[in-house]
From TrEMBL:
Domain of life, per lineage: Bacteria
Helix-turn-helix domain location: 62-110
The organism of origin for this protein: Natronoflexus pectinivorans
Protein name, as recorded: Helix-turn-helix protein
TM regions (residue ranges): none
Pfam families (alphabetical): HTH_17 (PF12728)
PANTHER family for this protein: HELIX-TURN-HELIX DOMAIN-CONTAINING PROTEIN, PTHR34585
Amino acid sequence: MSEPKTIGEILTNYFLNSQEPFAVAFRNHFTTSKQQVNQEENPCSSCPANVNSPLADRLEDWLDNQDVMQILHISPRTLQTLRSNGILPFSRIGNKIYYRRSDISRILNNHYTMVKIRCYGGNK
């Protein structure tokens, strides 16, 4: 039995190998973007562009519902409320929802409050 795949591996496989129109358009966008960058840096058009490396790095930054619920210690309903209220941005592919790690960090930083406990243990 093989080890379960990470979200990054699943998304990388989808975007690099799927023939669905969305995945094909995604690959074409990054292929043309990467070629434009390479042509600006190095005008040699015969040099091959390594498209897989930047895409794989970017996909590691995405989390699914289960990961976010475990990180934030919240219920599925609370996560849905965060999405519905526009507090937590998300992307949907089919019926699967993904979140950026940076958005999770931003929410934690923006909602951080320091509470000073007074009279702890009955001492005044």
